[in-house]
Specification:
Layout lengths: L1 H27 L5 E6 L6 H12 L9 E6 L6 H10 L6 E4 L3 H7 L13 E5 L5 E6 L7 H6 L4 E4 L6 H13 L3 E4 L5 H9 L5 E6 H7 L1 H6 L2 E7 L20 H12 L8 E3 L5 H16 L1 H9 L7 E2 H11 L4 H10 L2
Parallel strand pairs: 1-2, 1-3, 6-7
Antiparallel strand pairs: 3-10, 4-10, 4-11, 5-8, 5-9
Helix pairs in contact: 2-12, 6-10
Length: 342
């Protein structure tokens, strides 16, 4: 009997001792650590601008206050970064990725080169529900949708590779609306596309988000050299009340379904932040909470306003549900999208 009670006392003591240790391990792990934030675009674009703002502030919301550094990893329409976070990065909570959510659609469509499973990422959140637009240069002569629809020559649009919004949205709008478009693909990010437009190499792009246009093409908007001629949203953005909606130009139900499934539904997940599969659940939850707290932090919000970044945050849980929903799309819609986004 005495031996049995001794065992009970020893077990209870171990449980009492382990609980604080586990708590301390979880909450003090990040002290003195550096977190890599792998961004799938080149410096200077919208993805990079958001990520650098988040990196400046999110560390304060994580117990231990780690330093967060941005590592740009452009290539293949952000596919290089997504594959890296999934396959190469250690699932230790010290690497977070930010790449285009359109890549999950590419997985559904069976794109070669996709080496990840979107169902297995650990989603942290997204800073904004996207407001996709088509922005063209004044020099193109296309300053309204009426002029674009009537254009006899295809409008030369710049884009990244398939999976990036500038590519996918352009192809979907071309098919759904019958817009005359000549797509020039292969740029490493929206910053390069914008520079190409400013130099006259292309005439603009679709898939530019409004917040990205505001943040990185400010001078062009102020001088009138850059014009937003179309927005691809279910309803007008408050700051673009006179810019027409793409879905209103769709002449068929098929066209409307393509815009809805291929762009509107994607706006929620276009800027996801995710951890590698297998990251310990307690660290996933730590990051999710830290992300939500960052999105509400007055210093971060002031920084975002200074950089002209919209904030309309999406939680990690909502991101996860939305991505998982992609794998339940109507096979007919998937087949149509696969034909359009080759």
């Amino acid at each position: 009997m005495r031996t049995r009670w001794s065992r009970y006392i020893l077990a209870a003591g171990l449980m009492i001792g382990v609980a604080p240790l586990s708590h301390a391990t979880t909450h003090e792990f990040y002290k003195g650590k550096t977190v890599r934030l792998v961004v799938g675009t080149a410096p200077g674009g919208g993805f990079d601008t958001y990520s650098r703002a988040i990196a400046r502030h999110m560390g304060r919301q994580i117990p231990g206050n780690p330093t967060i550094i941005v590592e740009n990893m452009p290539g293949a329409g952000q596919l290089v970064a997504a594959n890296h976070v999934y396959k190469v990065a250690k699932p230790d909570g010290l690497t977070m990725g930010n790449f285009g959510g359109g890549l999950f659609v590419q997985q559904v469509l069976g794109r070669p080169g996709v080496e990840f499973d979107g169902l297995k990422f650990e989603f942290v959140g997204a800073p904004v529900r996207e407001s996709s637009t088509c922005a063209l240069t004044k020099a193109s002569g296309i300053t309204s949708m009426e002029k674009w629809m009537a254009s006899k020559a295809p409008v030369k649009l710049g884009s990244t590779a398939p999976g990036g919004t500038t590519y996918d949205h352009s192809k979907i709008l071309q098919a759904a609306l019958g817009l005359p478009i000549h797509l020039v693909a292969g740029y490493k990010g929206t910053a390069e596309v914008r520079l190409a437009a400013e130099s006259g190499e292309v005439e603009g792009a679709c898939g530019f988000t409004w917040d990205s246009v505001k943040a990185t093409w400010t001078k062009g908007l102020e001088t009138g050299d850059a014009v937003v001629v179309l927005q691809v949203l279910p309803k007008p953005h408050p700051e673009l009340p006179k810019v027409p909606l793409a879905i209103d130009f769709a002449k068929t139900e098929e066209g409307r379904q393509l815009i809805q499934a291929g762009i509107h539904d994607m706006n929620v997940i276009l800027r996801p932040y995710a951890l590698p599969p297998g990251t310990p659940k307690e660290r996933v939850q730590l990051f999710r909470k830290a992300f939500v707290d960052t999105m509400k932090d007055p210093e971060f919000l002031a920084d975002a306003r200074k950089s002209k970044l919209d904030i309309d945050a999406v939680t990690g849980e909502e991101l996860e549900r939305t991505v998982h929903g992609l794998f339940k799309l109507d096979p007919k819609v998937v087949a149509q999208l696969k034909e359009i986004i080759k």
